User: What shape does this take?
Amino acid sequence: MTEFNLDAHIPDGPLAEKWDHHKFSVKLVNPSNRRKFRVIVVGSGLAGASAAATLGELGFEVTMITFHDTPRRAHSIAAQGGINAAKNYRNDGDSIYRLFYDTVKGGDFRSREANVHRLAQVSVNIIDQCVAQGVPFAREYGGLLDNRSFGGAQVSRTFYARGQTGQQLLLGAYQALLRQIHLGTVTLYRRTEMLDVVINDGRAVGVVTRDLITGDVVSHAGHAVVLATGGYGNVFYLSTNAKNSNASAIWRAHRRGALMANPCFTQIHPTCIPASDDFQSKLTLMSESLRNDGRIWVPREFGDQRSPDQIPEGERDYFLERRYPAFGNLVPRDVASRAAKREVDAERGVGPLKNGVYLDLSEAINRLGRDVIEERYGNLIQMYERITGEDPYRVPMRIYPAVHYAMGGLWVDYNLQTTVPGLYALGEANFSDHGANRLGASALMQGLADGYFVLPATIGDYLAPLLGTDPLPTNHQAFLDAEAEVSERVGALLGVNGSHSVDYFHRELGKVLWENCGMARSRETLEKALTEIPTLRDEFHKDVRVLGDGESLNQSLEKAGRVEDFLEFGELLCRDALHREESCGGHFRLEHQTEDGEALRDDEHFAYAAAWEYTGDNARPALHKEPLEFESVHLAQRSYK
Amino acid sequence: MKITLTVWRQSGPNARGGFETHHVDDVSPDMSFLELFDILNEALIADGKEPIAFDHDCREGICGSCSMMINGRAHGPERGTATCQLHMRKFQDGAHITVEPWRAAAFPIIKDLCVDRTAFDRIIEAGGYISAPTGSAPDGNLILVPKAVSDTAMDAAACIGCGACVAACPNGAAQLFTAAKVQHLNLLPQGQPERWERVVNMVTEMERWFGSCTLHGECEVACPKDISIDFIALMNRDFIKAQFKQRRLTGQHA
Ligand SMILES: Cc1cc2nc3c(=O)[nH]c(=O)nc-3n(C[C@H](O)[C@H](O)[C@H](O)COP(=O)(O)OP(=O)(O)OC[C@H]3O[C@@H](n4cnc5c(N)ncnc54)[C@H](O)[C@@H]3O)c2cc1C
Ligand code: FES
Assistant: This one.
């Protein structure tokens, strides 16, 4: 175990002034010197595209790597509901401080105050930036920007572009990125997967990639490496994430020395379409903006078989409104998810498999008219109808929680630098701002904050002293060794020739995790998972079947590498969940709950970020702790009643 | 349900391709079209045969990755629907379905059903953006955008860049894609300063890669986002105007 000084480099001074002070105190790179620095950005989602475009605009030489065929297809494209910003355009009492406060509280006091405050500060600049780029946000009749309220907030601070906010924001960042490609500051490598980070003398000096079409394994060298590779929700197999989202980039960085923080903080989203069968390949999210107008209920009677329209008002249980009168259907995601699970576990679930609860728009349709509802949610409703064959204008929708977002990720300091100098992590790939639970519409905000505003302001501090040095040549032994390891790994996966497909192992891993480390966890279930996962991993290495070769497009091979990493990462996730003897946010330990079933935190012992160090294959990871101090927001048990 | 699939297989960009037929039993009507391919691929792997390569990611009709020509129609029989959102309940039990990749000169085949759509990015690089470097923006509400304008821009911006319009076009033209991209920006007040150069540069780049439009209208029918060919008319109007505007002194944009 290495001695880590987990210094988050939080600037001194009053909370509201920290970011300004910090921007003033960090080193900068002179404009005419910027082109002498090469920065490698892996990932073209909101975080990566915005960072690469902005660094390019500033004059740095940027290498952009993505496994997608075009940057615009990154998983960020699928975000529906919206993006928060403390503009207070509604005059409803919002402020930077309130957004900060809501985020710290919503995260169940497991995030870093200084980071969250900065996030709330730059949120307003994000909206301005996106508008200037031509993002067609929803407008009022007077031409001003429209807002709505979104899960967990009592103010309307969410900006949106129909139900396609992520798409429009990503297109904005992508267009800025392509402008830089056109201008020659950014070089794009598409259908190229990063398979390792290269470290020399304790610093990140580049990455090794595999060309997914030709299979060529090559190195890219740079002065710094930025990972914006998204979240690890797909470790559960079934999730709302895009099929190709994976943890390999951050896992490989972790194996090379970057600490992994709070992996057990995974968010289960309350409003997804319930699975319909075993062949289900992914779960579809229904934006929780639907909770603004939809009322969630189940029949009062156990095992009620009647169709929903036959169940009179008095025999329906609007369980969120009943249990949380102040927030009602808008309680934070973790609270809403657990409440739904409780109803389904109590056999009040609805639908053919009894695995859902109703989300009913009928009252809103009567009050506002079908047109308004169609305007607000048209594309979501259409999506639902396609998948289920049911019409939400007539029958209430069925929803159930599903794995959605990873609050955990690579540990980063205030500069977004990991524990490896020169290696940065942005967006969902880092652990920074959401604590144990993320509020709706805050991931897009964080990804763009990191990419447009934070990294471009902090990376100079690392780069400036490197002026005059060239990136390490790619024929350096450090690169050659890493390339050899990658090729060997690819060869090994192709060489097993066992009897089960990659998907088989992924599904099995998903089942183990969902059953034992899903919405509710206990020592018993976690210990079970911790014996099952290593067994499954051994089986994978002996029995996986990857056909085809490594010299052409081979999607099974791509998946095999990702699942191999998930099989290691999943174990760490469970280990983290086992060590955290408290319930907070998305981490609910059955042993730690209040009498009425709410999460019970233990601030005395667990008010820290758990940062895990890799110590070798099959060796126990070492735990390091970053204590969290709350100077501005008082630690309190969350209450949404 | 029982389904028979005839699928295009091609091992690489320069390899000769051909059709292969497979039978899939136990298909559930609730299954998506890509899940049908998932099961077929699992069966192929179990048989020791290489699975069929196809692009996909979000599986909810937004990333634009999926791209199958189903019985000769881009994204299959249902209007306004990407392949990943198509469900088997739209087919008859016992149906025989032929699946091919996008066929267009500008989209070379990589393998099986995967094609290379990089040409679309080239069109964007040529001008499909508003030059607004990070940090330079004024307050969002200083730019008023009439709701109708914003809504129409959004109708265009909804394009997912899948390429169905090109695949459906007998000429392999990319007018609908390009028009959606041009008009998203050209309609907005923020897009005005670069309006005329944008349309000229993007159309010129488009013509380097794609065939010419003869207004067949197949593109609109194939578009999973129901993007209207009216945008093509708007783009053509801007293009013609731009020929004239370009000669004017700067500052006389509107
Ligand atoms: C269905 C859905 C709806 C959502 N809705 C909202 C919402 O309304 N509001 C909100 O705030 N948040 C929402 N979120 C969350 C939000 O979309 C994500 O957290 C966010 O977009 C993540 O952005 P990112 O840039 O960090 O990563 P991503 O968008 O996941 O991008 C990752 C990128 O990394 C690349 N990559 C990864 N690994 C490698 C590798 N090894 N080599 C090369 N490239 C690699 C990929 O190609 C991709 O380009 C939603 C999420 C989902 C699933
Ligand atoms: S897979 Fe994303 S649009 Fe079909």
